[in-house]
């Protein structure tokens, strides 16, 4: 069975991520969306909530599951007997960091491969941070995230500024 792992912060999962999940899932027997637990910067959503949103968003895909991992991605890959990492590429600006990550993961685990899936052009400007920024200021995020993620974003920011 060919298993691939799509790691990320998913704070929160967007339609851009989901597009990569759907396309990745067509290439492998099993795709694991792996939510990174310890983020360098403070996430908006706790890991449980990021997992819940990802799980709700991929429920229509039978060969996709959602999991989380605390530390090094290569340790997680080994524990799942997986060798393939999926990452999405939006712009040239993603490339530098992504190449660095892929090279380091290869150094740490020589038999792993990173596969890059290019974004669909309508998602090329989409990121979790920009979506959070729009929602924080009361803008509409319908076109950028799954419905349930939109609801959670709205209620999160309503808690922060109850007057809105
Ligand atoms: P990280 O903090 O590890 O970059 P993200 O959740 O921001 O985690 O992203 C996970 C992966 O999804 C990365 O490979 C990122 O480039 C990719 N990605 C994020 N947004 C999009 C998008 N709109 N289209 C395609 N790929 C995307």
Fold topology:
Elements: E1 3-8, H1 15-25, E2 30-36, H2 47-57, E3 64-69, H3 73-79, E4 84-89, H4 92-108, E5 113-118, H5 128-136, H6 147-160
Parallel strand pairs: 1-2, 1-4, 2-3, 4-5
The structure holds adenosine-5'-diphosphate.
Characteristics:
164 residues, binds adenosine-5'-diphosphate, 6 helices, alpha/beta, five-stranded parallel β-sheet, globular
Protein described:
It is built from six helices and five strands. The protein has helices at 15-25, 47-57, 73-79, 92-108, 128-136, 147-160; strands spanning 3-8, 30-36, 64-69, 84-89, 113-118. The longest helix has 17 residues, at 92-108. The mean pLDDT is 94. By secondary structure, the chain is an alpha/beta fold. The chain starts with a strand and ends with a helix. Adenosine-5'-diphosphate (ADP) is lined by residues 8-10, 14, 16-17, 20, 87-88, 90, 94, 119, 123, 126-128.
Short description:
The chain has 164 residues and is an alpha/beta fold. The chain has six helices and five strands.
Beta-strand percentage?
A: 15-25%
Stretches where pLDDT is under 50 for at least 5 consecutive residues are none
Distance N to C terminus: 50 Å
| Overall geometric form | globular
Overall pLDDT score = 94
Q: What is the tally of helical segments?
A: 6
């Amino acid at each position: 069975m060919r298993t691939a792992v799509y790691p990320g912060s998913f704070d929160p999962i967007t339609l851009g991520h989901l597009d990569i999940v759907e396309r990745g899932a067509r290439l492998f027997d099993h795709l694991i969306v792996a939510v990174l637990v310890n983020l360098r910067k403070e996430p908006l959503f706790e890991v449980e909530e990021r997992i819940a949103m990802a799980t709700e968003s991929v429920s229509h895909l039978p060969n996709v599951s959602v999991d989380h991992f605390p530390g090094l991605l290569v340790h997680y890959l080994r524990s799942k007997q997986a060798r393939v990492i999926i990452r999405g590429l939006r712009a040239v600006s993603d490339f530098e960091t992504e190449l660095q990550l892929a090279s380091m993961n290869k150094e740490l685990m020589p038999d792993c491969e990173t596969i890059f899936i290019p974004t669909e052009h309508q998602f090329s400007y989409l990121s979790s941070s920009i979506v959070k920024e729009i929602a924080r200021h009361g803008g509409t995020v319908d076109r950028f995230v799954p419905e349930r993620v939109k609801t959670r974003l709205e209620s999160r920011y309503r808690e922060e500024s109850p007057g809105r």
